[in-house]
């Protein structure tokens, strides 16, 4: 029910049969951007037992049941940033008692600004690592035989440190064998980091990235936020399905 990016490399769809023999494999690397949206809130329902979804993980919002199992089993850690102070770090455990959903995080292809299906997760507090872990697990699982991925994230310098350890420790997360992940930070945010982050994570210095600003999701949020006033008071199922419809229209 969801439109995937038609331009991103996809074996057996838009790549030649012998693409994996090409010595320049950087051409087939998938480039993704991760970003949270705290305007996409949903207040707690008085009678949540009456909430009946029409679809489940058939578009962009991921399956709630499996996602909740991951959250319940994930290690709850609060990491002190070794870089400059960042809002995503500082607000990770922010609590809003009247909200069931404090926001969402999305993953989109960096070059073509298309949301990735079945990867959008909701926040229960702030932007915690266990939320992003699941979204990336869902995203990277769609690569198939492609073994290279670039992930642009505003706090990649901190987040990437324990990502693989979290995957290995979880019963609900996995990565394909041989997958190589390159971490980066969008050009708007990287200059707010320490100097060493610029040389290590700036997309200007990552081979095969091309010229990308790494902030395309900010543009996508601008139109999605127009409906936040309506989705704020919807049931959880209606909230998810409405976002699904608008994301599909965007793609």
What does this structure look like?
- Helix content is 30%, strand content 14%.
- It starts with 29 loop residues before the first strand and ends with a helix.
- Strands 5-4-1-6-7 form a 5-stranded mixed beta sheet, sandwiched between helices.
- With 251 residues, the protein is an alpha/beta fold.
Which short descriptors sum up this protein?
251 residues, alpha/beta, two-stranded antiparallel ribbon, 7 strands
Helices and strands: which structural class? Answer: alpha/beta
Radius of gyration: 18 Å
Strand ordering within the main sheet: 5-4-1-6-7
Contiguous low-pLDDT stretches (5 residues minimum) are none
Q: What best-fitting shape do the alpha-carbon axes yield?
A: globular
Averaging pLDDT over every residue, what do you get? 88
Helix share, percent: 25-40%
Total helices: the number is: 10
N-to-C terminal Cα separation, in Å? 12 Å
Following the backbone from N to C, one meets helices and strands in this order, namely: EEHHEEEHEHHEHHHHH
Describe the biggest sheet? 5 strands, mixed
Total beta-strand segments: 7
Strand content: 5-15%
Short description:
The chain has about 250 residues and is α/β, with parallel strands linked by helices. The chain is built from 10 helices and 7 strands.
Question: What order do the helices and strands come in, and which of them pair?
Answer:
Elements: E1 30-37, E2 42-43, H1 64-73, H2 87-90, E3 99-101, E4 103-109, E5 121-123, H3 129-140, E6 148-153, H4 156-159, H5 163-169, E7 180-184, H6 187-190, H7 195-201, H8 216-224, H9 228-231, H10 236-250
Parallel strand pairs: 1-6, 6-7
Antiparallel strand pairs: 1-4, 2-3, 4-5
């Amino acid at each position: 029910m969801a439109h995937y990016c038609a331009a991103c490399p996809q074996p057996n769809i838009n790549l030649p049969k012998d693409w994996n023999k090409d010595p320049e494999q950087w051409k087939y690397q998938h480039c993704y951007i991760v970003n949270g949206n705290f305007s996409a809130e949903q207040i707690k329902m008085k009678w949540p037992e009456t909430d009946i979804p029409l679809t489940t993980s058939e578009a962009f919002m991921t399956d709630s049941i499996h996602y909740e199992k991951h959250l319940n089993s994930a290690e709850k850690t609060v990491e002190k940033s070794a870089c400059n102070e960042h809002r995503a770090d500082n607000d990770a455990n922010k609590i809003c008692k009247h909200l069931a959903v404090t926001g969402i995080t999305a993953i989109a292809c960096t070059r073509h600004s298309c949301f990735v299906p079945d990867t959008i997760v909701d926040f229960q507090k702030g932007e915690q690592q266990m939320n992003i872990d699941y979204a990336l697990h869902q995203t990277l699982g769609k690569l198939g035989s492609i073994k290279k991925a670039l992930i642009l994230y505003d706090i990649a310098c901190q987040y990437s440190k324990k990502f693989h350890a979290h995957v290995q420790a979880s019963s609900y997360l996995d990565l394909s064998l041989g997958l190589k992940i390159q971490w980066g930070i969008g050009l708007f945010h990287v200059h707010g980091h320490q100097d060493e982050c610029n040389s290590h994570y700036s997309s200007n210095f990552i081979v095969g990235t091309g010229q990308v600003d790494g902030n395309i999701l900010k543009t996508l949020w601008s139109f999605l936020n127009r409906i936040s006033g309506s989705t704020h008071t919807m049931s959880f199922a209606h909230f998810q399905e409405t976002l699904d419809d608008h994301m599909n229209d965007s793609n």
